[in-house]
Amino acid sequence: MTQLKNDRFLKALLREPVDATPVWMMRQAGRYLPEYRETRAQAGDFLSLCKNKELACEVTIQPLERYDLDAAILFSDILTIPDAMGLGLYFETGEGPRFKKVIRTEQDVASLKVVNTASDLSYVTDAVTEIHGALSGRVPLIGFSGSPWTLATYMVEGGSSKDFRHIKAMMYREPETLHALLNVLADSVIDYLNAQIDAGAQAVQIFDTWGGNLSDQAYLDFSLAYMQKIVAGLKTEARGLRVPSIVFTKGGGLWLDQIADCGANALGLDWTMNIGRARSMVGDRVALQGNMDPSVLYAKPDQIKAEVARILRDFGAGNGHVFNLGHGIHQFVDPAAPKVFVDAVHELSAQYHV
What is the pLDDT of residues 287-303, one digit of tens each? Predict the structure, then answer.
């Protein structure tokens, strides 16, 4: 078993003492980096990049060469599961992900089968194994999946949506059909994340991108309930180490108390919630991950440092904080800005871990 040279991230997720607050960025391997754009051009397109384990490994590690990050995250996409279900994922320039086939009826849902990662998504686990080996214990590797609600939203809408017309119509008119779809997706995500853990992922995150668009009870019934089912089905140890889990709902501040009880080790925050208030709400039930507005990275270096200092001050002394952006880094950010951000987290957080 390869010894981790930097385990701050895993320790923080488990609310264990660290010497400084660990930091990574959602979407840290991406279009803001010129080297990423070059590798993507070499691959031909985004999906081809995801399915080439050597190139997926290369772009996963690229940000670690620039910044003193405390974790790497698998380079992939949240829509790999629907694609493996035969929906035909493709990317339309300027419009994001689209599906050739949509799921709209009870019959459509009945035709879907739980994804077998070993046979249907081996390119993802191959990439995890490749990246884990290339990291050689440098930092932990994060695996991930979309939440069932978020995956279902794309599958029913056929892509991104502003009004969620079709998925919400299904939710209110045919709740049993939607629950059947969410159950198939939850079982698929359990298999998918456990396969990533077996392949070398040392922590996993569930991205619930669209949960914040639900009403209060609908979120609990159609989003959180299925993430709770996934967390209960995850492996919690591999290669002699605990494997922590993170649940992140964008716009989920209204449900922090309930999310903290879902069984995950950590709760991701977007930038709309004060992290100190969040900490007082969840207590010592979970670690917190977040939560700087990604747009702060457009600011001057001193302003970036000031915002880092504020968030650290709001969280306060003690364990259980993983610093991150409140959502993915924007593609137009100057690559110099994340270095200011990452270095400031390490430099300014040490005083809170004496």
Answer: 999 999 999 999 999 99
| DSSP string for residues in 14-75 | TT---SS--B--TT-SSTTSHHHHHHHHHHSSHHHHHT-HHHHHHHHHHHHHHS--S-EE--
CA distance 44 to 29: 17
DSSP, collapsed to helix, strand or coil, labels residue 176 as helix
Catalytic residues: 27, 31, 40, 77, 154
Instruction: Provide Rg for the chain, Cα atoms.
Output: 19
Tokens coding 155: 């599958």
d(CA 9, CA 32): 24
pLDDT tens-digit map of 204-230 = 999 999 999 999 999 999 999 999 999
The 8-class DSSP code of residue 298 comes to: G
- CB burial of residue 171 (10 Å; 0-12, 13-18, 19+): buried
192: closest CA among 164, 166, 230? 230
Residue ranges and CATH numbers for the domains of the chain are 43-290 (3.20.20.210)
